[in-house]
Structure formats: C-alpha cells, structure tokens
Amino acid sequence: MVCLANSRKGGDRCIAGMEFGSQTWVRPVSRRSSEAVSVIERQYADGVEPRVLDVVAVRLIEKKPSEFQRENWLLDHSVQWEKVGRIAWEDLCDLEQRPEDLWINGYSSWGGLNNKIPVSRQEEISNSLALVRVDSVEIRGDGFAHFDYRGRDYALNFTDPVYEKMTAAGGFRRRKLGESFITVSVGKEWYGYFYKFAAAIIERSEIESEGRR
Q: For 116-172, what is each residue's pLDDT tens digit?
C-alpha cells in the first residue's frame, strides 16, 4: 500500500494508506483495544519509521471493520513491514479523491470548525478516510489545521507527527503552507461526537524539493 498517514494515536500510531493499484483504503490495526500500531509492529527491519508516500508491503489477516471505519484490517504482527518503493507528487495526484463534503458539517468544537459529527448521525457515515487536495493550509500553534475545501472552511486538529514536532519546536502561532494533500480521518466516539482529524499534511513544495535532492 501507499502510506498516506502515520498519525499519532496516543503513544502509538494510526497507519493508513491505499492499496497500490486499486486505490482502496487500508488501515492496518492491531489486536489491542486501541487498535493502534506499535513501534515494533510498524518499523522496517532497519528500524526506520514508515513515511508518508512510502510504498509498504504489509501482511494482513482479515477485515476488521469497526462501525463506519470499514477500512480496517487486522495486521499480522509476526511479519515485518517492508519498504518497496516511494511515489512522487505526480503519482499522488492520481490518488486524489473529490468528495462533495468532508462528511457532515455544521458542528464545531472550541477552536475547531466543521470538525465533529454527533453520534446521533452515525448512520449517515459510511467511511472514515479521505485524501483531498487544497490550495493552502494554515497550521497553528493550538494544534489546528485551517483550510478551505470546496468553498467550506475547516479547522481540524492535526495529528501528523511531522507538523506536531515542527509546531512544538518553532514556537510560532501560524504557518502558511502552499498546495497540499490532506488525509482526513474520522475517529471513534469521544463524548458523544466523532471528530475529524488532519492525519497527514503533504505539501507539494516539500515533496518536490525532496525529489530534487
């Protein structure tokens, strides 16, 4: 699969990607109650962490859907993950999705905007992952990513460790990024709501500069 998120989930990670070729979402999950993927379960043989846009070979056992998180698959923790390639920006564009909305809008937390969905509307949700392209993203020191998608404003908590680290180290209030893809994920219930997260932010200029190095 093409890794499209290596997102913080408690002390572990939530990994998600698209099956190479079919563009079907896959979220490997563990047997633990949190379903998060541990360091030992996800790292390559050389100890390197999977990066967004890596093409990764992962052994899966069976589908393990949980409510609307139908993309979940139980991983085989006995088989080590293997990096078999990496895609470029042009390849990522072929994976772009264009949903009309990022699920249900109109519900916002303090500091957020269109970032949560009441449990009472769960039956209206049929999936939990989307890869969308936006003209720009503003990441803020309060942990929210602000962007416009199809004329609607969003402010979602970002759980991308790259930008979490950058925000913590930089001490800035706001940072504007250019054209980017965002992997948006809907999490499990938290006090009566399902929250939307920016699980990965993939900036075009950063990816293209990496390819020139």
A: 999 999 999 999 999 999 999 999 989 999 999 999 999 999 999 999 988 887 766
The model's pTM is: 0.95
- Give the tokens for residue 161: 């460790």
CA distance 152 to 161: 26
CA atoms 187, 87, 154, 198: torsion sign: positive
Q: Tokens for 200?
A: 């990965």
Where are the extended beta strands (E) located within the chain? 2-9, 12-18, 25-29, 54-57, 60-63, 72-75, 82-86, 116-118, 129-134, 137-140, 144-149, 152-158, 174-177, 180-190, 193-203
